[in-house]
Amino acid sequence: xxxxxxxxxxxxxxxxxxxxxxxxxxxxxxxxxxxxxxxxxxxxxxxxxxxxxxxxxxxxxxxxxxxxxxxxxxxxxxxxxxxxxxxxxxxxxxxxxxxxxxxxxxxxxxxxxxxxxxxxxxxxxxxxxxxxxxxxxxxxxxxxxxxxxxxxxxxxxxxxxxxxxxxxxxxxxxxxxxxxxxxxxxxxxxxxxxxxxxxxxxxxxxxxxxxxxxxxxxxxxxxxxxxxxxxxxxxxxxxxxxxxxxxxxxxxxxxxxxxxxxxxxxxxxxxxxxxxxxxxxxxxxxxxxxxxxxxxxxxxxxxxxxx
Amino acid sequence: xxxxxxxxxxxxxxxxxxxxxxxxxxxxxxxxxxxxxxxxxxxxxxxxxxxxxxxxxxxxxxxxxxxxxxxxxxxxxxxxxxxxxxxxxxxxxxxxxxxxxxxxxxxxxxxxxxxxxxxxxxxxxxxxxxxxxxxxxxxxxxxxxxxxxxxxxxxxxxxxxxxxxxxxxxxxxxxxxxxxxxxxxxxxxxxxxxxxxxxxxxxxxxxxxxxxxxxxxxxxxxxxxxxxxxxxxxxxxxxxxxxxxxxxxxxxxxxxxxxxxxxxxxxxxxxxxxxxxxxxxxxxxxxxxxxxxxxxxxxxxxxxxxx
Lengths: 307, 307
Description:
Chains A, B: This is Homoserine kinase. Two copies of one chain form a homodimer. Chain A folds into two domains: 166 residues, Ribosomal Protein S5, domain 2; 130 residues, GHMP kinase, C-terminal domain (Alpha-Beta Plaits, 2-Layer Sandwich), CATH 3.30.70.
């Protein structure tokens, strides 16, 4: 029986000034998913490892994404998806995006790769929408493509892979506090001051320039978010202290990963990333909050076959 | 008697999605300024050619900029600035910025270049402020540095020169209608929808990526302004038709130059730029509005010595 196994990486969306458009891919943190043919049409979900997740395909992110792909192909093939969930749901590092990206990547491979990886993004977005209510690409795009991606437009969808400097590492700390995505969304405002918006796009333009020129100092100065971080960070206990600790450890910049509660810091080199993670961890140690740490190069590759 | 002559280029600020942060420099359209020492301290302004401009240094953009520079140097040197104004004031292609940039560049040269060109930007901004009320850098920065520049931050001031693709040309048409900068400013709103702001910074990030990767098609798709253009373009008769004509001629994108009434179009190659300028000109021919056309490579150099 043919079996395909896929690594589905965690991702950091937003990246300070890039709210709703930027995302980056971690190299080593992620889920595993296994794919088999089955004789009857449709998708079957098996949770092999991890938290209790729905197994009805229409209630499961991977199921919805895989079904969208099969529908587009008008395929009556059947697929079993076995999930080893390692990314904690609700952590803010793209847990549902990893499932959605992995599902479409694996099913596409199983069926002989009729779609390019870029073309898989809309199907993964359909899966993501089950979890967040709206189809977003800022996690699924870097999960599928790797690296750092920018969503230029949703209508039509256009995702641009950006250049990633060689020494760029990310430290992520997940303080294990509950923070609902709906709460993170509800603090956002529908209007924003023009002055702040101008500063935000000035920083975003500078960040993109810094990536191409591998200017780490400029990259650090550009990691500013005057619009969303002030609204969301009060929902994360210890945020200010953790961010200060990251910057004091030599991180280029730090912010909320996705809609939180995870906090990311971009760093030049692995050693600074390790020190940064340790420093942020010490803050939550004092607060007696359990954490999970992820230290990773910004991955050059996204979702991929592992066997 | 020592004489220094300087070419002070015209500039296009904003560039669609880059409102208040982006600007680019024209290669051949600009003013001439000549600088001489004088025996008594202070600045003397002579208008050698062009429209009637104030000659009192404190009422003249070049005078204010030059005075700011001399003050910073605590210099009691005296300078005569002779202006050949060729860029029409109020055209939207950085007429006052050219005067401000030229003044600080020339005086700096005359005094043995104590400042780098980057360091001259704040003094030129002081001159610009006389004309627009607020110190802006989106015209003076590209006028001084050449190329395409991005203002990341005003506090502290940080201007980033971006990569300019080799074949990038700009066609500018100045329909000779009166449009006060104050009117262009008054239509702007202090608040902007978050959705539109996100689309704007998505486009700006894509535009910066397109510059570095020399991806002309992406550059064209990124030249979208959903925030300012809809408010300002109704102030410019014929705008929609001129923009449509530019795009139909193969321009990558088109928008309002600065606060108008000039309209710019970015093009790949000189031939398309010429055709684009002619097509826009035909629109204003039908409307019986006199025009001035400027076709130029995006300049790699800014304000410079010419003798």
